[in-house]
Each structure stands twice: as C-alpha cells, then as structure tokens.
Design brief:
Layout: H1 10-19, E1 34-36, E2 62-66, E3 98-100, E4 107-110, E5 113-118, E6 124-129, H2 143-154, H3 160-165, E7 169-176, E8 179-184, H4 191-196, E9 230-236, E10 240-245, E11 265-269, H5 274-282, E12 288-290, H6 294-300, H7 304-307, E13 311-317, E14 324-329, H8 339-347, H9 351-357, E15 364-365, H10 383-389, H11 416-429, E16 433-435, E17 438-440, E18 448-454, H12 455-473, E19 478-484, H13 486-494, E20 500-505, H14 514-519, H15 521-524, H16 538-548, H17 553-570, E21 573-575, E22 577-578, E23 581-587, E24 590-591, H18 602-609, E25 611-612, H19 616-620
Parallel strand pairs: 2-11, 18-19, 18-20
Antiparallel strand pairs: 1-4, 3-4, 5-6, 6-8, 7-8, 9-10, 10-11, 12-23, 13-23, 14-20, 14-21, 15-22, 16-17, 24-25
Helix pairs in contact: 8-11, 10-17, 16-17
C-alpha cells in the first residue's frame, strides 16, 4: 500500500530531479556531448543506445493505461500552470536540451542540444541546438524558443515553483539562432543540469490567427507545440486521451532515443476510483497496472486471466531512493507548532501492526528523507556534518547533535503502550493534559485535527487511518478523516488548507535545488509551492544552500546527511513505508528489455522502453 505522488516540482521537473545533479568534465572549456557529476559519463562519445533498451524492438500497437496517479479527470493541456488538472502523458510532447539515463545518477546527454560547454568559472553553460531538431508543427527549434520557454516558466504566469527552481539562472542569452547561453548567479555543480533540463516549447503555442497570443496561464485545450515523440490525437470529456507517435519525429535516430517510445499510440482512461480501476484491468480494458497497494497485489490481483497466463504479475527491483512518503503536518496550524506534539503523533503510529495485518509484511518503514540510499543520515554526526551544523547550534534542537532519529517500534521489547506513555508525557510537557473527556490545552481547547486524503486513495488509506485514530483516541486526541476529489484536494494543498495529509515526495538520486522548493523559507508562503510543511528555518535554509553549492561527493553527502538529520529531528512528517521493487501486472502481449535500468519509475519505464510482441498469426499472412 502506498500513496501516489501529488504535483511536486511540477509534472515534468519531478522526473528531472531524479537523475540530474552536478557536473564534472575533463576540459570544461570545450564543448562535449555529455556532462557528469563525477568522473566521466558511462556512455562514451559515439555510443549508439542505452544498455537498458532493445535497439531492435518492434514498433506499433496501442498501449492502453489507466490513471497514472490519483487524477480522475483533466481540464487542460498545459502542465506548467497552477490552476486546473493537466492531462496525463503530456511529458511525451516536450523535450529539453539534455536528458539523463536510467542507469546513472547524474549524467546529462544531449537531446535537443548536440553539444554542451560549461565555462571554466562555472558561471555559465552554453548549448548548441541540433540543426535537425523540429517542433511538432515542423518549425526548427531555435535558441529564441529556448529563451522564450525559460522566461515564460520563470514568469508569474507559470506555477510558482518554476521561478524558485530556475531562480539561480540570471538570464538566457541568444548567441546565435542555434546557440544559447545560460548565466548563473553563483557557481554550483547543479546549474548546467538545471539549465539543460528546461522543458522547451514553441513560441507559437497559443498563437491566434491574428498573431496575438492566449496568455500562458490561460492556455487550456490549445494543443502544445513541443518537440517530443508524440502528438495529441484525440481526447474526450477530460476522461480519456490518446497520443499518436509523430511520424515526422526528428529524434528517432538519436542514441538517447534509439529503442524508446515503441508504441504507435499511448491511450489513458481515467477511472473514478481505485476499485473501478482494478476491476477494469482484470476485465482487459487496459494493458498494464503498477500496483501500489499490497493487499491488492496479494489478494485482488488474481483471477482467471492471471491463472491462464493472459495477465502476468512480476516485481522489478529498483535502486531508487524512497523519497518521503507519509502524513505531512502543516506547521501553519498553531496546533502543530511544538515539536513535542509532532513527536507524540509519530509515537502513536504503529507501523509494525500495519505491516503484519494489512501489508503482508511487504514493507520497510521509512526512516529518512533519503532512505534506501547513502544519502540517509545514520549514527551521530560526522566531522563533515558537524562543520555544517555547529555554526547553527543556537538555532537547532540539541538532539540534532546526538543519535539519528529512530522511528518508534512496537516489536518486542518495545510496545505500543510504552510509546503512548512517552507520547502522553511529551504532550503534557507541551501543555496538553487529559480532562473532561479529551486532551486539552490551558485554554480548554480539545486536541482535534483533520487528516485529508483524496477519494481515489481514501479506500486504501482508510484502514491505516482508522488504526492511527484508535491509537490517538487513547491519548484523548480526535483525528477526523476526510476524503475529497483529487481536483479539490490539489486546490486545498496549493492553498495549504489542510491539517495533515498523505503525500509522497518523489525520490532524488542527487539532491539539489528541489530541496529549496520543498523546505526553503521563501517557498513556505508561496501558493502552489512544494513546501507543504510550511517550514521556515534559517538553519535549514543555510544547510540547503551548502548542499546546492557542494563541489565534491563528500561535501554533498555531508550536507545531505545534515539536512536529513535536522528534518527528521523536526518530526514534520509521520513517515510511512516503502519497497525496493515495482509491482507490475501486465498483458502477456507486452515485452521489455532483458537489462533492467537502475533508477526509474515503473510507469515511465513501461511507456518509454516496452513494446508489443509481434503477432505470430500476422507474420504468416
């Protein structure tokens, strides 16, 4: 069981955060085909394809998928604005100057760009655009289009997290029609990757017949003009959408595209809830299902089509960091200002019972914002961490300088009773005592809050919340569970109108600027940002600044460990659980490459590298 991720870093930048970090090139004054954080790129100049694709994969067929997240309807084709819900799959329409590989943590290879040059002082990066690059309308991709895309995304017309994410890029300069230079406010190893990852779209998107433009933040069903491998073919009532492979796609022969995007069409059907979605798969209405609910995987992803081999279940290992999934606590609510209150809530969450009774022991408790990687803090602070933390000692909880937070356990010799006794004492120390049938503060106000979730996942979260509620009741706390439609919950999250809600922040293999959008003080009051917690901490701001400016792997580890240590000691999230495998059920007509990638999301891996097996009957005709 897991919750789907809501919009974090925007629908396209979330994936960029997974693979891109800093840079290191042997001669940064020279143009190169790729940049890597440490050492050299895995793939040499002149490589023909990535190892995890099949360059001879057949093309054709229509891949039908269901909701890739909790979205049940859409009302726009613009994934870069705050209002509304963007259609699934729009990432197929847009490309960037560079792209990462799925078997490296931080290498960027040319996509729209055919070479990259990083200035020796690290304060700028120049990209030359491949002369063959074309938009879906046939126009050449130019430096002016790249500049336009960058400036539009940084403008108030785009969702506000883009201006934060691109905030350290001072300007884009058109050197010539096919060359653009990005200049940075300060030198960090991440900046060339951020510049190279800017989604690029045509200046003609939204242009009217008279030459005027629909304002960018008002673009709705005007079809985007991008350079990606697919085009929107048709859609219906915000519930279905079909993409068709562009027959004139410019990039098919690029080494970063060989063996990818093999389906002639990709179609999405959006179901109203998880039950309908699962039953539709078993009825054969779509081709592949990524299962996030352990109970479903064990007890419901079964039936005659599984028995006769028409549908296949398999777990695929990944090496992704977990990201942070959990109940996010909104510090904007006075109820949660005291860290002792937040720690008490964490103590009332009985993961071990849930794992035994609901999850079939399939999960591991998340104990870090960077779990399942060497980025997670452990033990006591190292000398490198102390160099970062010690100057901030006056602003930090003294506990930060001790052992790393250990999530409460109810396995013997620990117990739920002992955890609740500790929680009761923490609450008392924070001014909350039990009287008149409820836990109350000095004013007599009862401790009551709401756990918000969307209706699509509410059914799967209900037994989890019910167990949590039962434990909280023993402390005199009332937690009301409310489910609402995905579109409404997104609006409430954008406005920070919630007490506690379940969120999954996407994993990152190399942390960078996205940490500022998630935890930086400037983002806390910026509507639509990723700082759901509402964290405003000068100490965290300082650590994040150090992290972004890390020049070596060791510095990156020290600063990330320090950040993790401070965040976990703040008890801003009640962590959930994770598994290091993707659970995928799929039709037996589908095939995938023999070599698996290392760092990937299952949905993107399926759409970008799988294919349909050739029809033996058709081959004999």
């Amino acid at each position: 069981m897991t919750t789907g991720s809501r919009r974090v870093l925007g629908p396209l930048l979330a994936s960029l955060a997974v693979g891109f970090g800093g840079f290191a090139v042997s001669n940064p004054a020279c143009a190169v085909y790729a940049i890597a954080q440490y050492g050299e790129p895995k793939y040499p100049a002149g490589f023909t394809h990535f190892d995890y694709v099949d360059p001879n994969a057949p093309r054709g067929g229509t891949l039908v998928l269901a909701n890739p997240n909790r979205l049940t309807s859409f009302d726009k084709f613009n994934p870069f604005t705050l209002r509304g819900n963007a259609a699934p799959g729009l990432g197929y329409l847009f490309e960037s100057l560079t792209t990462g590989s799925l078997d490296e943590v931080s290498t960027a290879y040319g996509l729209l760009a055919d070479d990259i040059s990083v200035a020796s002082d690290g304060l700028s990066a120049t990209f030359h655009i491949n002369p063959k690059a074309r938009f879906s309308n046939g126009d050449a991709v130019t430096a002016e289009d790249v500049k336009y895309s960058f400036e539009t995304l940084k403008s108030p017309q785009a969702a506000p997290q883009y201006s934060v994410y691109f905030g350290q890029i001072s300007r884009a300069v058109v050197v010539d029609p096919l060359t653009i230079r990005f200049e940075f406010k300060e030198r960090t190893r991440e900046m060339p990757f951020i510049a190279g990852g800017i989604p690029v779209f045509s200046r003609k998107w939204g242009m009217k017949p008279d030459g005027s433009h629909v304002p960018f933040d008002q673009l709705a069903f005007q079809k985007p003009i991008g350079s990606g491998p697919y085009l929107i073919e048709q859609y219906d009532n915000g519930r279905t959408i079909t993409y068709k492979r562009n027959p004139a796609y410019w990039g098919s022969a690029l080494p970063v595209r060989v063996g990818t995007y093999n389906f002639e069409r990709i179609s999405y059907k959006l179901y109203s809830d998880g039950v309908a979605r699962l039953e539709a798969f078993k009825a054969g209405e779509y081709d592949a299902l990524v299962e996030y609910i352990a109970r479903n995987w064990v007890r419901r992803d079964i039936g005659k089509r599984f028995d006769n081999g028409e549908l296949i279940k398999r777990e695929f290992r990944n090496h992704n960091g977990t990201g942070m999934q959990g109940f996010f606590i909104n510090l904007r609510r006075p109820l949660f200002k005291d860290v002792r209150v937040r720690q008490a809530l964490d103590l009332a969450f009985d993961f071990q019972w849930l794992n035994r009774q609901l999850f079939f022991n399939q999960y591991t408790r998340i104990d870090s914002f960077f779990a399942n990687t060497d980025l997670a803090a452990t033990g006591t602070p190292s000398a490198g961490e102390l160099a970062i933390l010690s100057p901030l000692r006056a602003q930090l909880d003294p506990a930060v300088f001790g052992p790393m937070v250990r999530q409460p356990s109810t396995d013997a010799p620990d117990s739920l009773r002992a955890n609740l006794i500790k929680a009761r004492q923490l609450l008392a120390d924070a001014g909350w005592t039990y009287r008149d049938g409820a836990l109350r503060n000095a004013k007599g106000d009862p401790f009551v809050f709401e756990i918000l979730d969307d209706s699509g996942s509410g059914a799967s979260m209900e037994p989890v919340v019910a167990t949590f509620q039962r434990n909280l009741q023993k402390l005199g706390i009332v937690a009301n569970f409310r489910t609402v439609d995905f579109a409404l919950i997104q609006k409430r999250l954008d406005a920070y109108d919630f007490d506690v809600t379940s969120i999954r922040m996407p994993d990152v293999q190399i942390p960078g600027t996205e940490q500022e959008t998630r935890f930086g003080s400037k983002s806390a009051d910026q509507q639509g940002s990723d700082n759901y917690i509402g964290l405003k901490s000068p100490a965290v701001d300082s650590i994040v600044h150090t992290l972004i400016g890390a020049q070596t792997r060791e510095q990156l580890l020290d600063s990330t460990h320090a950040l993790d240590r401070v965040l976990m000691h703040g008890y801003y999230v009640i962590p959930h659980w994770y598994t290091a495998s993707h659970r995928v059920a799929y039709r037996n007509t589908l095939a995938y490459p023999a070599t698996l990638p290392l760092y990937y999301t299952a949905e993107d891996w399926i759409t970008s590298t799988w294919w349909f097996k050739p029809d033996p009957a058709a081959a004999t005709k």
